[in-house]
Amino acid sequence: MITTEEIKALRDVTGVSIMQCKKALEEAGGDMEKAKVILRKASAMTALKKADRELGAGVVSAYVHAGGTVLGAVVLACETDFVAKNEEFPRLAYNIAMQVAAMNPLFKTRDDVKESDIAAARAVFEEEAVNVPEANRTKAIEGKIDSYLRERVLLEQPFVKDPSITIGELISTAVQKFGEKVELVRYERLSVR
């Protein structure tokens, strides 16, 4: 039997509706960690269903870090002013701006990565993999490229406040929470150095 306290604890951690939290806990047999995974999968499916909706509102947010020497700024869009004015939406934008300032992503998605960038990375990793046995070399190089991209693609980076989720998953959870499409439209990072 799932208790009200367990449902409330999951809701406090995820921000997802009480009914969704209850359903996830029931499906996970009361296991909180499994319920979080179930909710993440549901968030991704919800985001996919809402992907073709039109964006009409949003917020701009900035985070200044390190004594005023680094700034992360984002434009986070949603469908309605109702969501844009929800106190949690600007907080989400602020957290993503903090991520931009802290992690200096070079690309928003893998689609933004140019073939020339991948070719340059591949050349470096091929040199590093010279001593790897031939049978494993290609797999090792591809693994290094994948890791390299995960570090530099914003939506694939682990969230600085909770490394168990990526920025993409954070946005997918927001789609589920707010019930409408949420998209990172633009980001910038400025630095004195």
Describe it for me?
With 193 residues, the chain is of the alpha+beta class. It has three domains: 4-49, Helicase, Ruva Protein, domain 3; 57-108 and 153-191, Elongation factor Ts, dimerisation domain (Tetrahydropterin Synthase, Chain A), CATH 3.30.479.20; 114-151, no CATH class. It contains eight helices and five strands. It has a three-stranded antiparallel β-sheet. Helix 3 crosses helix 8. The longest helix is centred in the C-terminal third of the chain and has 19 residues, at 134-152. It is globular. The N and C termini lie far apart (56 Å). The mean pLDDT is 89.
Keywords:
single chain, 193 residues, alpha+beta, Helicase, Ruva Protein, domain 3, Tetrahydropterin Synthase, Chain A, 3 domains, three-stranded antiparallel β-sheet, two-stranded antiparallel sheet, 8 helices, 18% strand, globular
SSE blueprint:
Blueprint: H1 4-14, H2 18-27, H3 32-49, E1 57-65, E2 70-78, H4 81-84, H5 88-103, H6 115-128, H7 134-152, E3 158-159, E4 162-166, H8 167-178, E5 182-191
Antiparallel strand pairs: 1-2, 2-5, 3-4
Helix pairs in contact: 1-2, 2-3, 3-8, 5-8, 6-7
What is the third-level CATH name, the topology of the largest domain?
Tetrahydropterin Synthase, Chain A
Biggest sheet record: 3 strands, antiparallel
CATH superfamily of the largest domain: Elongation factor Ts, dimerisation domain
The dominant shape is globular
Total strands: 5
Q: In angstroms, what separates the terminal alpha carbons?
A: 56 Å
Helix content: 40-55%
Number of domains: 3
Give me the number of helical elements: 8
The run of helices and strands is HHHEEHHHHEEHE
Please, what is the average pLDDT? 89
CATH architecture of the largest domain: 2-Layer Sandwich
Overall radius of gyration: 19 Å
Instruction: Assign the CATH class of the largest domain.
Output: Alpha Beta
